[in-house]
Amino acid sequence: MTSAGLPLFQTPGIHDTFSHEHRIVLHCGDCQTFLRTIPSASIMLVMSSPPYNIGKEYECRLGIKSYLRRQEPVVEELVRVVSPRGSIYWEVGNFVQDAEVFPLDVFYYDLFKEKGLKLRNRIIWQFGHGLHASKRFSGRYETILWSTESEEYKFRIDPVRVPAKYPGKRHFKGPDRSKPSGNPLGKNPSDIWQFVAEEWQREVWDIPNVKANHPEKTIHPCQFPVELVERCVLALTDENDWILDPYCGVGSALIAGLKPIGGLQAATKRRSTQI
Ligand SMILES: C[S@@+](CC[C@H](N)C(=O)[O-])C[C@H]1O[C@@H](n2cnc3c(N)ncnc32)[C@H](O)[C@@H]1O
Question: Which residue, 12, 41, 128, 160, shows the most beta carbons closer than 10 Å to its own?
Answer without folding.
Answer: 160
